[in-house]
Automatic annotation (TrEMBL), chain A:
It is a multi-pass membrane protein. The keyword Cytoplasm does not apply. Keywords: Cell membrane, Membrane, Transmembrane, Transmembrane helix, Transport. It comes from the Bacteria. The chain crosses the membrane at residues 52-72, 84-104, 110-129, 141-161, 229-256, 268-290, 297-318. PANTHER family: FERRIC ENTEROBACTIN TRANSPORT SYSTEM PERMEASE PROTEIN, FERRIC ENTEROBACTIN TRANSPORT SYSTEM PERMEASE PROTEIN FEPG. GO terms for cellular component: plasma membrane. The keyword Membrane applies. It comes from Roseivivax halodurans JCM 10272. GO terms for molecular function: transmembrane transporter activity. Pfam families: FecCD (PF01032). This is Iron ABC transporter permease. Belongs to the binding-protein-dependent transport system permease family. FecCD subfamily.
TrEMBL record, chain B:
PROSITE patterns: ABC_TRANSPORTER_1, ABC_TRANSPORTER_2. Gene3D superfamilies: P-loop containing nucleotide triphosphate hydrolases (3.40.50.300). Residues 5-241 form the ABC transporter domain. This is ABC transporter domain-containing protein. It is found in: Cell membrane. Keywords: ATP-binding, Cell membrane, Ion transport, Iron, Iron transport, Membrane, Nucleotide-binding, Transport. Belongs to the ABC transporter superfamily. One of its GO terms (biological process) is iron ion transport. One of its GO terms (molecular function) is ATP binding. It comes from the Bacteria.
Amino acid sequence: MSPWIPALCTGLGVLFLAALALGDQTIPPLDVIGALIGEEGPTGIIVTQLRLPRAIIGAIVGAALGLAGAVCQTIMRNPLADPGIIGINAGAALAATLVIVEIGSLPESILPVASFTGALAATVGIFALSWRNGTTSLRLILVGIGISAFAGACASFISTFGEVAAVQRAMVWLAGSLRDSRWDRLPELIGWMLPACLLIAFGARELDLIVLGDDVARGRGQPVNLVRIALLFGTAMICGAAVAAAGLIAFVGLAAPHIARGLVGQRHAALLPASALTGALLVLAADLIARRALAPVQLPVGIVTAMLGAPFFGVLLWRRRND
Amino acid sequence: MTENLAARNLTLDYGRTTVVDALDLDIHPGRFTALLGPNGCGKSTILRALAGLLRPADGEVILDGRSIAQTGTKALARRVGILAQAATAPDGLTVEDLVRQGRYPHRSIFQPWQEDDRRAVENALARTALTDLRDRPIDRLSGGQRQRAWIAMTLAQESSIVLLDEPTTYLDLGHQVEVLSLMRQLVDRSGATIVAVLHDLVQAARHADRIVLLAGGRIMAQGEPKDVLTPDNLRAAFGVEIVVLTDPDTGAPICLPRSARPGDAPLQQECGASLDSTNI
């Protein structure tokens, strides 16, 4: 096993403690641990009711984005294929905006269902529009960017006609925010994530083969289309859950798999967990910056990841300029 | 225990263009067959169809009396392995990781890596002289080593029929001979059936047991190299005058191109004018 996986776990643990300790009221690490193991104290509530659910949900959402990005990049055989860029997340966000703005009376638990449906619809749309006797990764990306823009425009359009308070709520959420993280959000997030993660974990071996290209994979006997559809379904579940929990957090799905690949290499048995851990690290770090950089003003975490991610995207394109 | 692979009334097309029309072809088991022919004659297309990568518009490919369309993809891959042209591996993938993918059809979804798998990979690495390079990333290999790594992956599959699309392209002379000798060994020692699309007529004649000469999606001639590689057949297939000599060591035919047939390909004729010989 790669030594990087324990290293990433350690880093995540440290960052997690920092996320619990830092804030308007800084709590010493020992008190944090005390609060975690159930000691009564004045700071206990801040840790267990405010910061802990936010850190856990942030880490899970980050892991989801990293994992979804890794799967997408492999099955589309393109390093720029990230659910945030090719419109899967935008589809989820559009469906969720629809729910928040237009049908404000509905219970919040419908949000993950809506965003999963949106993510799946966007995925199917991307494939349908780019399919011509199979598909190429370039066509998938171009169509995906188009779908992403279209879904974004639709969300703005809906917002224009919505009730002001609901629209404002949707806008903050769309920018990607962990502010609304509460314990009662956690079960539904895990409920969506767990089956999808199992599906993808069993698919690690398939991913190792499909990355070599459709012809090579078929020549080894892989049912390529079935594998691609099953894994994209899992990806849509993950993206839907992540978007429902925290809105649009840009660039984590793009950057995390790249960093992970540099650390542990190409084998998906290591690459998938490493991408998830890296994604969790990135979101926790970005949320920490979002909370502390302009305190007491709280930035949405999505803005921080976008500001950090944009240069990363540029570097990636620059390094591949001759391909 | 090698198996019979054949095409019956096989019609293949890309979109609206028919590439191969009603082809009947028998691959002789336990022999090395070379598919030859000009560019665009359908060699690679036929090879892809034989491996089940391309669905026929009409007709079928038969493996031991049964259509491969009715055989499961993994079961087919255990019996027929194909190395397609110009495959690319992602950056950083090691030789061993690539070769291990050849074991895919032998493993069910929950089955761990087994002794059989390990042995097949070691064998494939040894046969292609890649054992020492197993941890090297594919993108840091030379063209010849890279091609051998892909061949090793196909060998690790341990199918009794191996199809190769231009396995010697991009290789220097030494590596070309090495790859073809390896094919020869697989046939002679392991009783494998090999079908390879080749470009070099001399090497095909030297190493293959049988040659299938294709032009325009149809078989022009097939049989032993000396019966197929005649000036008449080659003129008809390639539109080039060819002198056929005999290899003093092996008796295999050696084809020497002289010039384009007059009026057929004016550009080629102009370029080849200085090489013009008396036999036009």
